[in-house]
Each structure stands twice: as C-alpha cells, then as structure tokens.
Amino acid sequence: MQKSRLARRNEQFSSAIKQIPIDMSLIKALAFTGIPDSSNLRPIFWKILLNYLPLNPKEWEDTLKENRENFHILKKEVMIFPFDLSFNIVNLISEIEDAMEEVKDSKLNQEENEKKKKMIAEKQLQLEILKDVSRTRTSMSFFHLHEEPEVDEKVLQKLKTNSEEEKKINENENENQNQNQNQNENQNENQNENENENQNQNQNQNENQNENQNLNQNENQNLNENNINLQSNTESQIKPKKPNWVLSLCNILFVFAKLSPGIGYVQGMNEILAPILYIFATDSDPESQSIF
Question: What would the DSSP string read from start to end of 68-101?
Fold first, then answer.
C-alpha cells in the first residue's frame, strides 16, 4: 500500500535527525518547506537550527542536562530577587519608589545603600519585563499571567449534589412549619369547643414537630459536615499545575539582560522569545522542558 504524502514527509524529517552527524544544510532545506507538526519534529528541528542541540543526537541528553544546570546557576548568580508573578505591578512601582526615597534621604549606611540601589535596579528591570510580558500573546492561554487551577469535576459535582439536598431539606422544613402553623390556627378556632381534645392534639403535634425538627437538624448537620470535608479536600484534588511558562519567559529575558549589559532589555524582546519558547514547550520530552 502506497504511503501518504504526510507519512513520507514525516519519514524524511525523522531520518534527517537520526543521522550522525546531522547534516545542517539538509535540516535547513527541510525546515524551509515547513516542519510537520507531528512526531515531536518541530521542537527538535528548532533546537537544532538555534544550535541549542548539537549535531550528534547521542550528545543530546548530556547537553540538555548541562544547559539546565548552567541556567539555574546563572539565575542564582544574577537574580537577587526572584520574580513574583502574584505581585501587582502597581505595588511593584510603589516598592521601587519607596526604596528610592530611602536612598535619597541618606538614612542608610554605605553598605545598605549599595544593596538598596542594586535592589532598585533589579526591580526596575523586572518591572520593564513584566509590563511587556503581561501583554504578550494575550489571546493564548499559554501566555496568561495568572491561571486559575482546574478543580476536579467530581468534587464540584459532589458539592452541587449536597447543596441541592440541603435545599430540599430546608424546603421540607418550611413546609412542615407552614402545616403546623395552619394546624395551630384551626386549633385556636375550635379551642373553646374541644379544649381537652385540642390540648391532646397539640401535645402530639408538638412531639411530632420536635421529632421532625430533630431529624432535619441531624440531616443538616451531616450535610454540613460532608460539605466541610469536601471543601477541605478540594485543594488536594486540584489537578497539578501546568509549567509556568510566563515565569520562564520573564526569567530568560532577565538573565539575558543581566548577561548582556551593553544590550540590556529592549522592548519587543518578549515577542521574539515568545514563539521560540512556545515551540520548545511543545516538546514531549519533559527533561527538555525542565531547563526553564
């Protein structure tokens, strides 16, 4: 049976990255025709084209490990204050202004003054990066600055079911109270005629009412306990968070700016890095993602 055109293309691209060493001219020629979005080919091709991976596939694992270690070392060396994406940009501006006032007032000794100046410079760089990153590809959830955790649907369904049951119990309780009220009104009308009989009926009804109330209270208490237990366990049943690629974007831009003081951070670098980071993130190999 003749293979489809897509299958033949996939084979052609796959065989190109299995060569030892890989032929870079062939990689460029194939990439120019469009890299298939299958078999994890696209991220691998981009990593080779960007010289992130060596031309010998046998060296990829060691290279990724070395790159990962180097990046973490660089982050520790150049970043005094890690990015806090939960921190409001307005608050960050206020923090910088307060620190500048402290330096201006000369209330600090020389050592503290130097530390404060370094902090101000780092926070100002973070502010520039955060402003741009927060506007990066906003139509894609991948680049959303804040992402709500996904709660297990089973937990939500249980909470919803318990809420409905509690509502029904409350309705029954209200109905019982209305019935008792009507009965009491009828009893008052006939009280003069059947005083002794009504007293006995009232006594029986009060006993029944107390029993119903006790039953309803017990049911409500059990439901409340179940709801509390479910709500307390909701956090443990929240699905694992996805890798924070927004934080990765910030970290990469920051490290580059610190290592390249002659260039620094320039507005728009986030837009250049974003598609590259997105392609890298589609790599099915978790080890290759962990560098960020």
Answer: HHHHHHHHHHH-SS---TTS-HHHHHHHHHHHHH
pLDDT at 235: 41
**Domain range list for the chain:** 82-147+243-265, 153-237
- Tens of pLDDT along 114-151? 887 888 888 888 888 888 888 888 777 777 755 444 44
Beta-carbon contacts of residue 225 (< 8 Å; ≥ 6 apart): none
Rounded to whole angstroms, the Cα distance separating 98 from 41 reads 50
| Residue 291: closest CA among 129, 141, 68 | 68
User: Could you give the CA distance from residue 206 to residue 123 in angstroms, rounded to a whole number?
Assistant: 71
Query: Tell me, what's the pLDDT at 157?
Result: 59
Helix axes 269-281, 41-49, angle to 10 degrees: 130
Taking the C-alpha atoms of residue 42 and residue 290, their distance in angstroms, rounded to an integer, is 18
pLDDT in tens, 19-63: 899 999 999 999 999 988 877 889 899 999 998 889 999 998 898
CB 277 within 8 A of CB 52: no
**Does pTM top 0.90 for this prediction?**
no
Neighbouring residues of 71: CB distance < 8 A, sequence distance ≥ 6:
255, 291, 292
- Give the pair of three-digit tokens for residue 260: 């390249």
How far apart (Å, rounded) are the C-alpha atoms in residues 251 and 224?
A: 45
Between residues 157 and 101, the one the model is more confident about: 101
DSSP of 159-171: HHHHHHHHHHHHH
Give the residue-averaged pLDDT of 166-194. Answer: 65
Alpha-carbon span 26 to 8, nearest angstrom: 16
Which residue has tokens 């996805």?
Answer: 242
